[in-house]
Amino acid sequence: MLKVGDKLPAGVLQEFIEVEGNGCSLGPNSFDIEKATAGKKIAIFALPGAFTPTCSAQHVPGYVAQAEAFKAAGVDEIWCVSVNDAFVMGAWGRDQKTAGKVRMMADGSAAFTQATGLTLDLIARGMGLRSQRYSMLVVDGVVKTLNVEAPGKFEVSDANTLLAQAKAL
Asked: Which residue positions are annotated as catalytic (predicted)?
């Protein structure tokens, strides 16, 4: 399992781009994780699924509300990672009004999630293999803090906890 001091696993995440520009086309665009994190401080939070109750009512809204505070703490970007496709993540981002605040990064095949060792088996609930709920600060591709939730909990991966860690880093 991924731990503090580890480099993020190599791979690709996708983001649905709403406005063409900066070398990105409309629709799903792939981003190399190593290149996207190089030289940056990134707040990453992951969750079991788009449009699910806790994720939509608490997890994403907390990061959207604190986006400016994260920037003030030196965080370059905030990423939400979920085992959903880029189209779903794009629709969820529109619904949650994340534009310019939180990048909605799709891990459609769970390749990144499996590489981190932070998977959650929700097959019995009809949701397949998903991500555990967690948050982390990543500096130049290296994990500096990692907060993994106990199953069914939402206590340590919230925006306020990660923001406090970003201010202390």
From this structure: 55
